[in-house]
Specification:
globular; disordered N terminus; D-Maltodextrin-Binding Protein, domain 2; alpha/beta; 6-stranded mixed sheet; 268 residues
């Protein structure tokens, strides 16, 4: 008789577990580790989504290539890791049917080094190897008179085109390797999320030599992207509303300081 009495309890428990994993009520978002996955995992975002009857699942990616493919192929509901120029480049080159639905934050691109630099003459500087961020890196170096001109019309990561009266040497490498160059005593221009993942906010601030102005960086806000067919779905509406809360901006400011700046805007 005891087994019979326990049966309804077991059934309820099993149904609860099934409900938690119901795909229709689970929002799966692909994100790079820091700050994107951390922002999504903040209490205010997760609690808001739970209050709307959904569960948030954050799938962490270590690269810039897989999240858009996974989104386009239906493996995730949205992603959060890129700015609009990179997204547009991916859509143009690969035919993805995905779009930006909301701006969330921006990360000023910075030059990092372990020690202060009095002269950049003959310096070796490593930068990212995708064309949208290469342009940003070159613009930053040009703004500080480290290079004179550059050309990305026919970009080749093995042979970046630029001129420099300072005789600097520039190489383009995978963004995940850039922080090693700094630790080896060289200089590198690193996207904010990679700097945060490698060092955390305090150390990234310590190694920062100079960076983009807020006006320039703000034009490269990182976005939530979704499939074109889903941009106004209930899942995406709930996700965007969760990130639109003012306390998300407070979390970003308190967690990352000037390395990450909140810039929410619904793009639909």
């Amino acid at each position: 008789m005891k087994k019979i009495k326990l049966l309804p309890v077991l059934v309820v428990a099993l149904l609860s577990l099934v409900g938690c994993d119901d795909p229709a009520k689970t929002i799966v978002v692909g994100a790079t580790p820091s700050p994107h996955a951390e922002i999504l995992s903040s209490a205010s975002v997760k609690n808001y989504i739970a209050e709307q009857g959904y569960k948030l699942k954050v799938k962490v990616y270590q690269d810039y290539v897989t999240p858009n493919k996974a989104l386009n192929d239906g493996g995730i509901d949205a992603n959060y890791f890129q700015h609009i120029p990179y997204l547009n480049e991916e859509v143009s080159n690969k035919g993805y049917l995905i779009s930006a639905v909301a701006k969330i934050h921006y990360e000023p691109l910075n030059l990092y080094g372990k020690n202060s630099v009095s002269s950049y003459a003959n310096a070796k500087i490593s930068i990212v190897n995708d064309v949208s961020n290469v342009t940003r890196a070159f613009e930053l170096l040009k703004a500080f008179d480290i290079i004179d001109t550059y050309d990305v019309a026919n970009f080749n990561a093995q042979h970046p085109q630029y001129t420099s009266s300072n005789n600097v040497r520039i190489q383009c490498i995978d963004p995940g390797l850039l922080h090693h160059k700094v630790e080896d005593g060289e200089l590198a221009i690193i996207p904010g999320n990679y700097a945060l993942t490698a060092w955390g906010s305090a150390k990234a601030s310590q190694y920062r030599l100079f960076g983009e102005t807020e006006e320039v960086a703000g034009q490269k806000s990182n976005v939530i992207a979704a499939r074109d067919s889903d941009i106004n779905s209930e899942k995406i509406n709930v996700l965007v509303a969760a990130l639109a809360q003012s306390n998300v901006g407070t979390f970003i400011s308190e967690s990352y300081g000037p390395t990450v700046m909140y810039s929410f805007a619904d793009l639909r």
